[in-house]
Amino acid sequence: MSTSEAAIDRIQQRAPRPALVDTFGRAVTYLRVSVTDRCDFRCVYCMAEHMTFLPKPELLTLEELDRLCSAFVARGVSKLRLTGGEPLVRRDVMTLFRSLSRHLDSGALEELTLTTNGSQLARFAGDLAACGVKRINVSLDTLDADRFRALTRWGDLNKVLAGIDAAQRAGLHVKLNAVALAGENEDEIPSLIEWAHGRGMDLSLIEVMPLGETGAERLDQYLPLSTVRARLAERWTLEDIPFRTGGPARYVSIKETGGRLGLITPLTHNFCEGCNRVRVTCTGTLYMCLGQDDAADLRAPLRASESDERLHAALDDAIFRKPKGHDFVIDRPGQAPAVRRHMSMTGG
Ligand code: SAM
Ligand code: SF4
Questions:
Q1: Which of 48, 73, 248, 307 fits a disulfide with 9 by CB distance 3.0 to 4.6 angstroms?
Q2: Residues with CB under 6 A from ligand 2
Q3: How far does Cα 44 stand from its chain's mean position?
Q4: How many domains would you assign to the chain?
Q5: Which domain covers residue 40, as residue numbers?
Q6: Which of 82, 152, 153, 213 is the best mutation target for the ligand 2 pocket, counting ligand atoms within 8 Å of the beta carbon and taking the most?
Q7: Which ligand is nearest to the CA of 177?
Q8: How many Å apart are CA 248 and CA 147, to the nearest integer?
Q9: Looking at residue 140, which CATH number applies to its domain?
Q10: 278 occurs within a structural domain
């Protein structure tokens, strides 16, 4: 970096930077970052059995991830979620959590959190809590060990349950996410809800999204949550509630279980108008919309200079292009995915 570049950088580091606001007036305050494309599971709706993962040099280093996240925080991002792949299988990922926690201490960041499959939680729950993480999302589609193994191909249910126990013991607020899968876990949805609510956890159901080739037919897996909701309403008293977490989930309370159920319906309900989020892959590609292919490369500006000026210019450029919404469809057999990349690339 030249002396003048460094000086400008120092001045601008002190000056507050403009917030990231798109052309539809939506402020980007929520960033999801995939810290790895690797995973210790191979969930049937997410990955193919034999995945080819990225060569290591393509991945942002932990230092680069810190710089990138910090640049977003400087532009008004107040909620940061690390995801993957499985974020807790990235080597030394706690170093990143620890360094990012400085933004919690400064008050710039309101929340630092993660989405995890839970397999490594027993090991990391205490460290996460020590880094200021308060709430985590754990993905769990079934409580049946054999079914769990079949759905995740490689997973061990007991490890995940031990991880959830450890997280709750460490004082982390756990929310469960379950993908609703036709013919796979649909019969189990009520018992999953009862189990979660019985342990003081909210649960959100997610419709399967057409992201990346997995070798499975999405139309066979697709279970509209409108159907699930109608079935649950025959058993329980559901009431729409205004509770929001800033995301796409719409919530209902269930009188009989005393808990909240989130319904994430990208296919039957368009949630784009309130979208406040963007996603970055582990290679530093910024996707302004989960369901569109347009993207911006942030790795080149990150690596081009020690100054963050190029990075901020790339952010301005990209946010200007944030589209109004996505157009997922999943109604034709054999249809190609809406976008080619897997969920594990962009992060859930
Ligand atoms: N490995 C972590 C986990 O499973 O929680 C984080 C990454 S995973 C890609 C994030 C979330 O995306 C998980 O809840 C997973 O169930 C969900 N997911 C993956 N593929 C999906 C798809 N095609 N449709 C809907 N949800 C999907
Ligand atoms: Fe791994 Fe999460 Fe994808 Fe399952 S959903 S394969 S745990 S990244």
A1: 307
A2: 39, 41-43, 46-47, 84-86, 117, 139, 344
A3: 18
A4: 1
A5: 23-346
A6: 152
A7: 1
A8: 28
A9: 3.20.20.70
A10: yes
